[in-house]
From TrEMBL:
Domain of life: Eukaryota
Record's function text: Component of the intraflagellar transport (IFT) complex B: together with IFT74, forms a tubulin-binding module that specifically mediates transport of tubulin within the cilium. Binds tubulin via its CH (calponin-homology)-like region. Required for ciliogenesis. Required for proper regulation of SHH signaling. Plays an important role during spermatogenesis by modulating the assembly and elongation of the sperm flagella.
One of the GO BP terms on file: intraciliary transport
PANTHER family from the UniProt entry: INTRAFLAGELLAR TRANSPORT PROTEIN 81 HOMOLOG (PTHR15614:SF2)
Entries under Pfam families matching the protein: IFT81_CH (PF18383)
Provenance organism: Nesospiza acunhae
UniProt keyword terms in alphabetical order: Acetylation, Cell projection, Cilium, Cilium biogenesis/degradation, Coiled coil, Cytoplasm, Cytoskeleton, Differentiation, Phosphoprotein, Spermatogenesis
Coiled coil: 168-253, 309-382, 483-563
Cellular component aspect of the GO annotation: ciliary basal body; intraciliary transport particle B
Gene3D superfamilies: Intraflagellar transport protein 81, N-terminal domain (1.10.418.70)
Family from the record: Belongs to the IFT81 family.
Spans through the membrane: none
Protein name: Intraflagellar transport protein 81 homolog
The IFT81 calponin homology domain, residue ranges: 3-126
Length: 676
């Protein structure tokens, strides 16, 4: 067991699950969490099972998982009694059941994913034997089995191709053979052209042959259009006959029907539709809206990192711990009244689920009944179209009249009974009103007594339980009646289908022959098409190879043209340089001095002489500057010293003037004091 858990934890921590479990955390998972984990693993194998088990009933979850495990060929250990225990453990989320299943699934995930994919197409749909008696259903079933066999062969070929790969040598041999066939066809066309060219007016004859071919093609298309219009006319006539038959049947139904039966049917239909509109459809819409809201919220949120996931996991653990504490508190503070209410709630939920299931079964039965009625109408229209209306003999007409009289007397007796029942219904309705008023008064008194005694709500709970039990019994009775009616209707339909089958046997025999010939022609057409496709593929391969070769040659031609233009430009440049060199040589060799002066060599020689003279003058100037550099620096230093000396004298002179002005001011102040 420990090794098994170790393998499960290792597989769950890998891709694509990445659960980050250890042995302790995995072993401490709740039953609901184990079921969700098993559902996630099954969803990885088959994406249709990637659902949240909180959004479906436990019975639906167990049924879904058992179906997929049966498809995957999982064999639970033990006998038949152990199988029932296995189902029960799968519903309750038992570790002893789910751990072996997880170990088996996680060890062969890839193999089981392939098996689940193949099961979508290879699990045979079981058709009841009574439906296979119909030739149309039998033909469809045969086509279904043939398509299943074709899928098996194609899948095997696909797997073999994946394993073996393509053989390049065979492809090359096929290409070479196709090239030889192409050459032979080209030679044959050339021979035919030469043979035709010797005939007089061969162009006109070719034009006439082309026009003849076009007219034949047009004739074939017109014949095909004519055939299509005939088939459309035939189908339109059949639809008209069916509509006429339906009209007659509806008229008979309206003439033979009673207002009471019509009202009863309408009331049943209204009740069923009101249940669908008021209870079932709003609940389904609410669940769909909730799922859509959560999906939109999930899409709108940013991508979650590992830190976000860790935070969410910690929050989930905290909420789980709080839930466990609340459950423990509830168990500690357990009261019997709560257990009774929980029992009543459980019974009410079970009854509501059964009610929903019966409503779904009723809706499916109605759909099946409507489809069967359509098939019966179609068979009747075909029978009327083939054999016409039936003519009754004298004895059959007498029997029909006697049956009609007996039905008339029965109708009158039933009508009288209905009138009596209606009168009694009025009396009972008034009695019901009186009893309801008394019941309300008694109920109020009972509630007051319950409030005094401190047990308010006890009578209401008792009534609800009795009402639920009564509804359950009524539903069981309705279910039994519905099943009986359906079985009788199916027997009648089978008898009618058998009669129509006997009348349609010759036509179906001819149709089978035509289908066989059609299959042979289709097979021949497929073979010709395969030959054409192979030839076209070979020619396409040759064409692509030639296109690649032409593309390469064009690129090479463009490169060579570019090289040619570059070489041509270089040639022209060299020619210009050569022409200039010739002119230079001619001017240099010329005896005239004017021509020599225009020569480039003479110009450069003259420039070189001028530069040499300029350099000589600059060198002499540099020599003079070097010789006078020392005395000039000494003289500059003397002038700087002289400038400093003169600056010092100026400052001394300014200070002396300031001191003389201050002494004069002091003397003038002393004189003023003496005067005073």
């Amino acid at each position: 067991m420990g090794d098994q858990m170790q393998v499960i934890v290792e597989k769950l921590n890998q891709e694509p699950f990445r659960k980050n479990y250890n042995l302790i955390s995995f072993d401490s998972l709740e039953p609901l969490q184990l079921l969700q984990l098993l559902s996630d693993v099954l969803g990885e194998i088959d994406p249709k099972h990637a659902v949240d088990i909180r959004e479906e009933l436990p019975e639906q979850t167990a049924k879904r998982m058992l179906n997929l495990l049966g498809i995957l060929k999982y064999k639970p250990p033990g006998t038949v009694s152990d199988l029932s225990a296995f189902r029960q453990g799968l519903v309750t989320g038992s570790k002893a059941v789910i751990h072996p299943v997880l170990h088996w699934l996680l060890q062969r995930t890839n193999e089981l994913r392939t098996r689940a994919y193949l099961a979508r197409f290879l699990v045979k749909l079981e058709v009841p034997a009574e439906f296979l008696q119909d030739d149309t259903v039998a033909d469809f079933n045969k086509q279904y089995e043939e398509l299943m066999g074709a899928f098996k062969t194609l899948h095997k070929e696909h797997e073999q191709l994946k394993i073996s790969g393509l053989s390049t040598a065979e492809i090359r041999r096929d290409i070479s053979a196709m090239e030889e066939e192409k050459d032979q066809l080209a030679k044959r066309v050339e021979r035919l052209k030469k043979r035709v060219e010797t005939v007089q007016n061969h162009q006109r004859m070719l034009e006439i042959a082309r026009q003849l071919r076009l007219e034949k093609e047009r004739e074939e298309s017109l014949a095909q259009q004519k055939q299509e219009q005939k088939s459309q006319l035939f189908h339109t006539e059949q639809r008209l006959q069916r509509a006429q038959v339906q009209l007659k049947e509806m008229q008979h139904m309206v003439a033979d029907s009673k207002p009471e039966s019509l009202m009863k049917k309408l009331e049943e239909e209204i009740n069923f539709n009101s249940y669908l509109v008021n209870e079932k459809i709003p609940r389904e819409m609410e669940s769909k809206k909730t799922s859509v809201y959560f999906l939109q919220k999930l899409v709108a949120e940013p991508a979650m990192t590992q830190a976000d996931l860790t935070a969410l996991e910690s929050e989930i653990e905290e909420v789980t711990a709080q839930m466990n504490q609340l459950i423990e508190k509830r168990i500690i503070t357990y009261e019997p009244t709560d257990s009774k209410f929980s029992m009543y709630r459980q019974q009410a939920s079970i009854i509501s689920r059964k009610k929903e299931a019966k409503a779904e079964e009723l809706q499916a039965a109605k759909e099946e009944m409507s489809s069967l009625e359509k098939q019966v109408e179609q068979k009747n229209s075909q029978a009327h179209g083939l054999g016409g209306s039936e003519v009754l003999t004298e004895d059959e007409f007498k029997q029909y009249v006697s049956r009609l009289r007996s039905k008339n007397t029965l109708y009158k007796r039933r009508r009288q009974e209905v009138a009596e029942i209606t009168a009694e219904y009025g009396i009972l309705q008034r009695t019901e009103e009186l009893l309801r008023q008394r019941h309300q008064a008694t109920q109020q008194q009972l509630q007051a007594i319950e409030e005094k005694k401190g047990i308010s709500g006890y009578s209401y709970t008792q009534e609800e339980l009795e009402r639920v039990s009564a509804v359950k019994s009524e539903m069981d009775e309705v279910k039994g009646q519905t099943l009986d009616n359906m079985s009788e209707m199916v027997k009648k339909l089978n008898a009618m289908v058998a009669e129509k089958k006997a009348s349609l046997a010759p036509v179906i025999k001819e149709l089978r022959q035509l289908r066989q010939s059609c299959q042979e022609l289709t097979q021949e057409c497929d073979e010709k098409k395969m030959q054409y496709d192979s030839c076209a593929a070979g020619l396409e391969t040759n064409r692509s190879a030639l296109e690649q070769e032409v593309k390469g040659l064009l690129e090479e031609c463009a490169q060579e043209e570019s090289n040619y233009r570059y070489i041509n430009c270089m040639k022209r440049s060299l020619e210009v340089q050569l022409q200039r060199a010739k002119e230079e040589m001619k001017a240099y060799v010329s005896p005239e001095p004017q021509e020599r002066r225009r020569a480039v060599r003479e110009q450069y020689t003259r420039i070189i002489l001028e530069q040499e003279n300029l350099g000589k003058k600059l060198r002499e100037k540099q020599k003079v500057v070097r010789e006078s550099h020392g005395p000039n620096m000494k003289q500059m230093k003397m002038w700087q010293d002289f400038e400093k000396l003169m600056e010092c004298k100026r400052e001394c002179f300014l200070k002396q003037q300031n001191q003389a002005a201050i002494g004069q001011i002091i003397q003038e102040g002393g004189k003023d004091r003496l005067v005073l």
